[in-house]
Design brief:
- The chain is an alpha/beta fold.
- It has a single domain, classed as 2,3-Dihydroxybiphenyl 1,2-Dioxygenase, domain 1, CATH 3.10.180.
- It has a 4-stranded mixed β-sheet with strand order 1-4-3-2, covered by helices on one side. It has a 4-stranded mixed β-sheet with strand order 5-8-7-6, covered by helices on one side.
- The radius of gyration is 15 Å and the shape is globular.
- The chain starts with 10 loop residues before the first strand and ends with a strand.
């Protein structure tokens, strides 16, 4: 697919990519777009939420790319604009997401924070108006 505009995709490392695909679908409402097994093993996958995408791969200590659950710290997070933060929060909580901060109002909008099954922080907020 030719690149027609500049885009940035978070690339997130998971211990178990198939489990992450299922969990992100159930908890955060993402949709699986593709998955493949690279020649060196592991798995690569892409998911979407609306017209936005993330990519993911199998973590590897050998390559120095592991999930927060393996390193005991997160070094990045994913920030997502949503129209209905409270509805999304209820879905994530019902699916067992670790809620770090329940929905609250900030000067820029309504927001909440959750961690996924591997400990990556996700920040959900209404878009600025």
């Amino acid at each position: 697919m030719p690149v027609t505009k500049t885009e940035i995709f978070p690339y997130i490392f998971y211990r178990d990519v198939p489990a992450a695909l299922e969990w992100l679908t159930r908890a955060f409402g993402l949709k699986e777009e593709m998955r493949t097994t690279p020649p060196d093993g592991g798995m690569h996958a892409e998911m979407s939420l609306g017209d936005q995408r993330i990519m993911m791969g199998q973590g590897s200590k050998r390559r120095g790319m592991i999930s927060p659950r393996e390193s005991a710290t997160a070094t990045m997070g994913v920030f997502v604009y949503l129209e209905d933060v409270d509805k999304h929060h209820a879905q994530a909580r019902a699916a067992g997401a670790e809620i770090v901060q329940a929905p609250y109002d900030e000067s820029w909008g309504r927001t909440y924070t959750a961690r996924d099954l591997d400990g990556h922080p996700w920040f959900f907020t209404t878009p600025p108006r």
